[in-house]
Amino acid sequence: MIEIQNLTKIYGDTTVVDQVSMTVETGQIAALVGTSGSGKTTLLRMINRLVEPSSGKVLIDGEDTSRIPAHALRRRIGYAIQGHGLFPHRSVAQNIATVPALLKWSEADIRARVDELLELFQMSPAQFRDRMPYELSGGQQQRVGVARALAARPELLLMDEPFGALDPVIRAKAQQDLRDIQRRLGTTLVIVTHDMEEAVALGDRIAVMDKGELLQYGPPSEVLTQPAAPFVRELIGEGERPFRLLSLTRVGDIAKTGEAGGETIPAGASLRDALAECLWSGRSALPVEGGGVVTLDQLESRAAQASVA
């Protein structure tokens, strides 16, 4: 669990982060969202002390991080940034092994961990471990960057706009992969994004920041339906709100008995994905993997309900 208590950062006469307090429970994803200059990246970097707070505390499982040597703290916390940040002169395996090597893991343990993570990210070790970063696609580079951040089994993973440089199709897949892997590993994750849609797609909790202040912190459904400030409402976008609410429900949750033709849709896909597929393909119903169907009438009814929520 991460407890942020009255965290503040002041540069000269400018308060960049102002008395922020929030708690991230173990195994949750907290998405920090806000416009450029809102203080979200500074807040993230204060968690692993890349930026030292002016005042306030960060506790990880009850331990005050200011009492832990900075280098030791950072080895316990994974950190992934936009553009992956891979070392260009090191192979994929060497990149992933960076922190375990610093921690003096055995060569056998390092190799096993590298192969485990490559398999987890659906990248064959035999095919990818000896490749150089320039030989990878953008999406593959980003996966290796996240794998490197997870290599030493950190209790906490921090991500700063990790998918910002990816095109929309790859970005959506990367988000889903991250969510699936995070659920499998149970890692606590704090992610910075400027994109409310990404925050809704990934976050168990969303923290909305503006001008250094935390305006609202809560589950996506609460932030979308009960915005606590005009800025939050503006960031959500009234026209987009129904579709973002559809993103919170999975197809499998509303599938009903029936049959439909054409390609199936995963039970884990969102209602927003299903609505887009119906409208794109012109189908009035979609078969759901594992059985049942979801209909256009159901989806349109849910969207109408969301618009008045």
From TrEMBL:
Q: Where does the ABC transporter domain lie?
A: 2-236
MF (Gene Ontology): ATP binding; ATP hydrolysis activity
UniProt keyword annotations, A-Z: ATP-binding, Nucleotide-binding, Transport
Is the keyword Transcription regulation assigned to this protein? no
According to its UniProt entry, one GO biological process term is: quaternary ammonium group transport
Q: InterPro entries of this UniProt entry?
A: AAA+_ATPase, ABC_transporter-like_ATP-bd, ABC_transporter-like_CS, P-loop_NTPase
Output the Pfam families linked to this UniProt entry: ABC_tran (PF00005)
Q: Which family does it belong to?
A: Belongs to the ABC transporter superfamily.
Protein name from the UniProt record:
Osmoprotectant transport system ATP-binding protein
